[in-house]
Specification:
By secondary structure, this protein is α+β, with helices and mostly antiparallel strands. It has 22 helices and 17 strands.
Length: about 475
């Protein structure tokens, strides 16, 4: 036998479609292929190394071979329950985008919803390791393909705006708009700037602005703006994106300006906005805090008495409210700080501030609604704070590294779609006593599927998961995936 020959006993151990080379007494396995050359003869071409063979052990694949072999175990449970409870979102995407783009946007947004904020380079790994790879087997989910998708969503917005117009047209007509600061440490992003929270973040920021239906919880519009821009300036762009008419805007004091009040009042629109303490109108309203009218405000199972006065100041309807429970709570907190010895909490300051505790001043152009109705509508706005809490603490949209303006706007749309999925899933989970979005996903997560003898089967499906799947209408999804 020659020095570089390979024994028959070794050749028998090589995988089909490979060749073995003897190098310094070690047997390495390579891919190979046959092709016809220009001379018309058949030739063999050796490919990359995929492992080695050792006598008494057999074929040993190297790491790259193992990584590229077929995945036979997939994440199932959390994807199955989400797919079953986000069908309206997918249908809307298919109505506004071509089928391939709709499927990719949906799959990427599902991953963002389930895994939290996910960088482009990591999305394919989650796709490959989940049942999304079975349900949408032909999707291109590599970095370059998704980078192109994000760019198109930010640069070619016809379909994006068409979908947002559909959302706005179907909304209840009561819209909250608010901003959310996100850190962005990319020096090449045109939107990343040192904003008002630079000292706290320690990095430049971008500003996410979203519109949100306060009655249904459905997000409607999403854009990312320059980190140094004010929300009251950025919000004007929303009125250029879609036709916003006959809406009631429930907005925060940060959006107040004379120009914005005119915008919020035009085209059949109305507004409710709290006034900052330094505004002349607010100072006039709280000059006297004698309130002789009151109503009972109920939030959930809790009731409180709210005192109010309703007056016209400088031509605007201004309503001043005092929540008696909130006032008592703020006073109690202040007095506790005094007892603990905090230097900035004094009796003199308390005597001045106690009348303003639990007080809020609202300005509106609504004429027909009562003071109680206006207060109750405004209180719905706080749902958007819960919504942003999801983005910050659950989805972990706290810092971005995106370097391109258009891709950043593409990400803003992915965030909108993932928020739609969140709202739809939240609505489904709300019907299950004692369950939240996160607890449902956590319980479902342990359920995997494995490929055995060419067939996919569900594993770890215990009684608790079976009941959860039943309550979330997911049983049919199991069978459809297993027969994919």
């Amino acid at each position: 036998m020659g020095k570089y020959s390979v024994p028959e006993s070794i050749r028998k151990l090589k995988p089909k479609g490979t060749m073995v080379k003897n190098i310094s007494g070690y047997y390495y396995v390579y891919e190979y292929s046959n092709y016809t050359g220009e001379d018309g003869k058949r030739h063999t071409k050796m490919g990359k190394s995929i492992g080695s063979i050792k006598e008494g052990i057999g074929f040993i694949p190297n790491n790259t071979f193992a990584a590229e072999s077929e995945i036979s175990s997939l994440d199932f449970g959390e994807y199955a329950v989400t797919l079953a409870n986000s069908k309206k979102t997918y249908t809307l995407l298919k109505d506004c985008f071509n089928p391939e783009d709709a499927a990719r946007i949906y799959a990427v947004s599902l991953i963002h919803f389930i895994q939290g904020f996910t960088y482009l380079k990591d999305i394919k790994s989650y796709y490959d390791m989940s049942i999304l790879s079975l349900i949408f087997p032909s999707l291109k989910m590599g970095y370059d393909a998704l980078s192109t998708l994000y760019d198109a969503l930010g640069r070619r917005q016809t379909s994006v705006i068409a979908m947002e117009e559909r959302l706005v047209a179907a909304c209840s007509g009561q819209i909250a708009i608010d901003g959310h600061v996100i850190g962005c440490n990319s020096e090449n992003n045109d939107l990343a700037e040192k904003g008002y929270r630079f000292n706290k973040l320690g990095e430049p920021q971008v500003n996410l602005l979203m519109a949100y239906d306060v009655n249904t919880g459905i997000p409607l519009l999403s854009r990312i703006y320059e980190g140094a821009s004010n929300d009251k300036v950025s919000v004007r762009d929303f009125f250029d994106i879609v036709d916003l008419h006959d809406m009631l805007f429930v907005i925060d004091r940060g959006f107040y300006s004379t120009e914005n009040i005119n915008i919020f009042s035009s085209n059949g629109n109305a507004y409710i906005i709290p006034l900052a303490k330094n505004l002349k109108t607010c100072r006039a309203a709280v000059h006297s805090l004698e309130m002789h009218d009151r109503f009972i405000y109920q939030k959930g199972k809790k009731n409180t008495v709210v005192e109010y006065k309703d007056e016209i100041i400088d031509g605007y309807r201004v309503l001043t409210y005092r929540d008696l429970n909130e006032s008592a709570s703020e006073q109690q907190s202040y007095l506790r700080k005094m007892e603990q010895g905090h230097k900035s909490y004094t009796k003199e300051s308390f005597d001045k501030l106690k009348y303003f505790m639990g007080v809020i001043v609202l300005q509106t152009n609504l004429e027909d609604q009562s003071a109680q109705e206006i207060y109750e509508i405004y209180k719905k706005r706080w749902q958007i704070e819960t919504f942003y809490n999801y983005f910050k603490n659950k989805a972990n949209y706290s810092s971005l590294h995106e370097q391109d303006y258009y891709k950043t706007q593409g990400l803003a749309f992915i965030m909108l779609v993932s928020a739609l999925i969140h709202q739809e899933f939240e609505e489904a989970s709300a019907s299950i006593k004692g369950k939240s979005v996160q607890s449902c996903l956590l319980d479902a997560r342990m359920v995997k599927i494995h490929k055995r003898h060419g067939n996919w089967s569900v594993c770890n499906l215990l009684g608790k998961q079976k009941e959860l799947f039943k309550q979330l209408n997911t049983e049919a999804n199991i069978q459809s995936v297993l027969h994919t």
